């Protein structure tokens, strides 16, 4: 057990499920290195060199890593495979546990953090999937409480997790139908049960017109609907992944796979045949 | 031996070179460990053929998904079966192109991550160079050599003046041989993959339906198969419209004889013109019985030394990638971690010494 005298908490985080390439190194919830580059579909070129940089700039020997957190999508099929293949190979070759993180959950957390909203919030992450569709899910969050126990922590203090509660599984959905569905769910709630905000995160530009109709559909004030254009940040992949690793929710390297949320078109056509 | 090669051997202390190679350019996931570019310690191939049969052809997205599922398992098993510890590996090689870009990327990311994890050099390798160097797995290639590359995606005549130097002197202007076989097979009602069915039917047929030979302009080493393919499709349609039974055997034989005559004729002419010492047949269509026997007979009659790798090294496999990568390694040429899938990668530009010339 030679690993016992090494830091057991250092984690490499990766996500290439969207246009952004996210790489981070975290230790005990502290972000030692983070880059979220809009690499314009060059993830396959830049990911390994960026991992090399992340480790060297955070003073991390790859053999001292305690685990890997990877965004498994859903998102671009090719993009997701780039990070997942890299993560599973690193995990296997370096004998590390790996945590499969929903790229949508990390994106929802990233968008919620950027929004600075205080209060109960429904978060709907969006990754465009063409033809009016998006990869999406529904989360509920409340802003982190001010933490009075360690008031004297340095600026490098550990990030406080917003408590994200998952209300639906990751899926590919027609954004118009999805918006209407969420509006129905909201209407079923009594006024006191309703969230203070409904926050759409991610690739909101393409779907803004559709999702903004939710105010009218659900009878909510316009200013309770917010949009936050963002990607899944490396630190949130890392933080969510670290929690999973800590609770033993790790995956064996060989078994790590992307979450495509749907079968290929060819397979779907085959299934449709009588 | 070049000075670069000598230097490389010095660097490795004269020890054996062990290359772990990865190939995912199409529908086979393959990992091999090759010693000194010649000796295959292990060559694992996870074929997806059964999956793609249901679709009547390779579906790129399905292929990519299956590569991700088994790539690390294959690497682990290959290392275990090679008897070589990961630290003992000299380098990691991977097919960089040509091929399906999504499929290539899985192998490339896995190879990069493995090279990075083990602190080993990475060698991005050309898929066709791999097919050609499959011949090095059965004996020393004699230069200058001519390679006849025939596969589902490629039909090329490659001239090799010396080790690792490639000059494409002829190639198909439309369909690859394997592609034409698949289309003809479909029109004759054979299931995918159709090549072996056409080959079998052709060899069993008593007579051949006459079909044209496409030689193109005088002296050209290029190929064109779309006209021949259309001629077959016309024959099939005419029979159908007349309500006649299709003479599948006769058509298969006529098609095969036309293809083989042109391939063999051009390869033999290239041997003579370039004064080559050896003819290398390679690629998946090298399995074709009609082509093998006709080429063997012609080479015997003409006194040409012919090399045909065993079937397992003709279809896509990683051992051949390890054999080709070894040439690059011996010339001191390795890749960096920035390589990506190159669906249209140039064989000539992959030649040894080319990066210094440019
Ligand atoms: Zn091939």
UniProtKB/TrEMBL annotation, chain A:
Tell me the ranges covered by the Gcp-like domain, including all copies. 38-141
Taxonomy, superkingdom: Bacteria
Q: Which Pfam families match?
A: TsaD
Identify the NCBIfam families for this entry: T6A_YeaZ
Protein name in the entry: tRNA (Adenosine(37)-N6)-threonylcarbamoyltransferase complex dimerization subunit type 1 TsaB
Q: Which organism is it from?
A: Saccharibacillus kuerlensis
TrEMBL record, chain B:
What is the protein name for this chain? tRNA N6-adenosine threonylcarbamoyltransferase
Q: Does the keyword tRNA processing apply?
A: yes
What does the UniProt function comment say about this protein?
Required for the formation of a threonylcarbamoyl group on adenosine at position 37 (t(6)A37) in tRNAs that read codons beginning with adenine. Is involved in the transfer of the threonylcarbamoyl moiety of threonylcarbamoyl-AMP (TC-AMP) to the N6 group of A37, together with TsaE and TsaB. TsaD likely plays a direct catalytic role in this reaction.
Gcp-like domain span: 39-322
Q: Which residues cross the membrane?
A: none
Q: Which reaction does it catalyse?
A: L-threonylcarbamoyladenylate + adenosine(37) in tRNA = N(6)-L-threonylcarbamoyladenosine(37) in tRNA + AMP + H(+)
| Listed cofactors | Fe(2+)
Q: Which species is this record about? A: Saccharibacillus kuerlensis
Keywords noted in UniProt:
Acyltransferase, Cytoplasm, Iron, Metal-binding, Transferase, tRNA processing
Pfam families reported in the protein's UniProt record = TsaD
Q: Where in the cell is it found?
A: Cytoplasm
- How would you classify this enzyme at the top EC level? transferase
Q: Which InterPro entries match?
A: ATPase_NBD (IPR043129), Gcp-like_dom (IPR000905), KAE1/TsaD (IPR017861), Peptidase_M22_CS (IPR017860), TsaD (IPR022450)
Encoding gene, per UniProt annotation: tsaD
Tell me the cofactor note: Binds 1 Fe(2+) ion per subunit.
